[in-house]
Amino acid sequence: MGEGGDPAGAADAGRPVSAAELFDGLGITYEEAFGRLPAQSDAVDWLAARLAPGSRVLDVGSGTGRPVAERLADAGFEVTGIDVSRVMVELARAQVPKARFEQCDVRDFTPEGGFDAVCSFFPLLMMTRAEASAALRRMAGWLVPGGYLVSATVPADVEDAEVEWMGRRVRVSSCSTDAYLRLLREDCNLEVLHHSVSLFLPDGDLAAPEEHLFCYARRRGGGAAGSEGAAGSEGAAGSEGAAGWGGRETRGRVGQ
Ligand SMILES: C[S@@+](CC[C@H](N)C(=O)[O-])C[C@H]1O[C@@H](n2cnc3c(N)ncnc32)[C@H](O)[C@@H]1O
Question: Is 5 exposed, middle or buried, given 0-12, 13-18 or 19+ CB atoms closer than 10 A?
Fold first, then answer.
């Protein structure tokens, strides 16, 4: 399937496009549109500054491997990426030979051993809320004590909403910033060290402006870090409510 084509005939079949179909179709176009997010760059720097050399990092929904897996592998960490899209995994393997990539749905993934950090940048949005919550809980469980979960999502109080995204009609679910933080703290039993909401403004016309929520959290216990300084302390920054699916949602349920 080429860029701009009907992802695997899903529309003809009258069923929602799956994440694998969507990202198989987007391929490198995703990186062209979203590969330079300042808040993601800050998150990777924050994480890299806290990990010991050789730490094991899992990148869930690793996409093209750039920038996250590439930067972490270049920094000397042992990086595994998993992604449900065959095309994304092929791109990542070609672009980031220092990391290991596996084509796998995070809902089916069972790691061997724990991770010092798990990155989860935007892989959960095409799941139901219940599936996304369960996936985050599992990721938290893959962390060694003191390990970090660094994650990002689009904060929007929507469930099974049809939106236009990168020129495709897709069905998405997400939750508000407060609900996401509650999920990390209460369901995943993580300590949230920092969160920020930023407005992503694309360079070109491949994507539209959207809000991004980045959270840095840590599993309790273990010897890592101790008390965090100002840069790592819990706090919110950026704009709330400026743009996002809540405003563009056309079908489906909005509100909890
Ligand atoms: C929005 S992209 C983000 C890519 C990358 N994390 C980044 O921030 O540059 C979401 C990625 O998650 C992957 N993904 C979506 N659902 C997934 C699932 N259930 N299991 C594993 N990967 C998934 C997609 O194929 C896609 O590559």
Answer: exposed
Q: Distance (Å, rounded) from C-alpha 113 to C-alpha 111?
A: 6
Residue boundaries of the structural domains of the chain: 9-254
pLDDT tens digits, one per residue of 128-172 = 999 999 999 999 999 999 999 999 999 999 999 999 999 999 999
Q: Which atom of ligand 1 is nearest to the CA of 31?
A: 9
Cα gap 46→150, rounded to integer Å = 9
Asked, as a colleague might, if the bond just before 155 is cis with ω within 30 of 0, I would say: no
- Give CA torsion, residues 75, 79, 82, 86, to 10 deg: 70
CATH 3.40.50.150 fits 9-254, yes or no: yes
CA 83 to ligand 1 centroid distance, Å: 6
Residue 61 CA, ligand 1 centroid: distance in Å: 3
Give the predicted TM-score (pTM) of the model: 0.88
Rounded to 5 degrees, what angle do the CA atoms 182, 104, 200 make?
50
The set of protein residues with a Cβ atom below 6 angstroms from ligand 1 is: 19, 23, 30, 34, 61-63, 68, 82-85, 88, 105-107, 121-123, 126
Measured CA to CA, the distance from residue 122 to residue 101 in angstroms comes to 17
